[in-house]
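#structure-requests
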Amino acid sequence: MEDYAGAHEARSKDVEALLAVQPPRATAAAHLGGIAVECRLRALVVHYHRLTNWNDLSGRAKDPKSKQPIARPGHGLLNALQTMDAIYRRAKADSLLLIHLS
């Protein structure tokens, strides 16, 4: 399994470096920032469902996807969020969060 948490940390540092130069490299930072968010969400999915590999059965008890295979989320940030029922239900309370992720 990929190290999504490590990738998130590395891309976050890249964003900071790109914004620290003069002039700031905002377009590249925004692109890498999106990748950092995507990596973090994938790390959360892996942890949430207690996965060793994609397509393993979810190990999260009391979740609608419990004991179902969890596929690797695509690049859609909302898709990754929707994979985690408890977190998605909380996220729906913040419509701006969902708008920004979409």
